[in-house]
Amino acid sequence: MDGRPPLPDLREADLTGPVRRALGSESVIPADWQVHPLAGGRGEITGGVYRIVGGGHDQGLRVSWSLVLKVVPEPDEDDGPAAHNYWKREFRCYQAGLLADLPGISAPRCWGACDRPGEGTWLWLEDITGPRQENWRDQDYARAARSLGQFGAAYLKERPLPRGAWLSDRMLRKESAFFGPYLRDLPAALDHPLVRQACPAEQAARLERLWAVREALLKQVEALPRTFCHLDAIRRNLHRREGTGGTRTVAFDWEWAGIGALGEDLAPLVAGSLCMGRRRGQRPAPGCRGVHRVHRRPARRGVAGRPGRGALCLLRRPPRCATGCGARGWPASSPGRRTATRPSRLSSPAPLAPS
């Protein structure tokens, strides 16, 4: 046993509807399919992601098709829609049509959303074809930042904010609370030589200073204009798709999607990509400052009127990678978290002070 979940047992009835919608024909009969697990498909709540490739017939003509099936098992304990990792959030987003026509970015099209009581949910998604670029250049990160800025800015003036009890809200505050026990235990943990190696005394002091002013920083973020956010836009959740209309950024994995601060998607793009957003051999994310400049242009253009000075303070000021989590990853004992990749170096930021 290698610990991987068993492949889904698919029948023709499971595939007929999604395949017909994907091919745009109500007469397709799917046949001869194969199931291939996708690397990295398992996550905090995801049970598995699979590429289904097959053939079939449509009024005597041979057809071929491919789909992606995302399986999310029903948890033993459901914390409800307000939980930061609510297991049905992406399913609800697709079911409500929120991801069908996004500004600035795209999401894979949904060919079927199946609620299977007692088991979980199945999402039949578009198979995004084309080469997956393992190494992004700085301009690729800049393009993604601009696309995310256009996405967030559109919900300030052009589009109404989506509504739903299952959308995340104040995710940064909830995630900060998650790390509280680790920060409280940090002084004692520093006695261990391996912890000191990963988190030297100077870095630990920066962490403690940041933690001491967290409430002031959270209030600044929460005072910014509110918009629709992906909130997990790390490198491995983004794909660059070339098409007749030009290059488009495709965002996968909308499990954390919800209402956040204008510009909040920039943080995972930079810091998240450093600590866990790339696979072995991928080029790391560029420095914060250049991507921040590109991101804020479309975002600031979308701000109605002339917001107060405090509302745009975080857009004017490049994000500070001060915690060390971006360099070393999540705490090793963190239950249910995604594992970090190899360490990356971060430049030392200016000291933090309460505002």
Describe it for me?
By secondary structure, the protein is α+β, with helices and mostly antiparallel strands. The chain folds into two domains: 33-126, Phosphorylase Kinase, domain 1, CATH 3.30.200; 138-328, Aminoglycoside 3'-phosphotransferase, Chain: A, domain 2, CATH 3.90.1200. Helices cover 33% and strands 20% of the residues. The protein contains twelve helices and eleven strands. It has helices spanning 12-23, 89-95, 138-157, 171-178, 180-189, 193-198, 201-212, 214-222, 266-275, 288-301, 313-316, 325-328, and strands at 28-37, 48-58, 61-73, 105-106, 110-116, 120-126, 168-169, 226-229, 238-243, 246-251, 258-261. The strands form three sheets. It has a five-stranded antiparallel beta sheet with strand order 1-2-3-6-5, with helices on both faces. The longest helix has 20 residues, at 138-157. It is globular and about 70 Å long. It starts with 11 loop residues before the first helix and ends in a 27-residue tail after the last helix. The model is unreliable at 303-355 (pLDDT under 50).
Span between termini: 54 Å
Poorly predicted regions are 303-355
What percentage of the residues does DSSP assign to strands (E)? Answer: 15-25%
Output mean pLDDT: 80
Largest sheet: 5 strands, antiparallel
Radius of gyration: 21 Å
Structural class call reads alpha+beta
Q: Give helix and strand order, one letter per element, not per position.
A: HEEEHEEEHEHHHHHEEEEHHHH
Annotated CATH topology of the largest domain: Aminoglycoside 3'-phosphotransferase, Chain: A, domain 2
DSSP helix count? 12
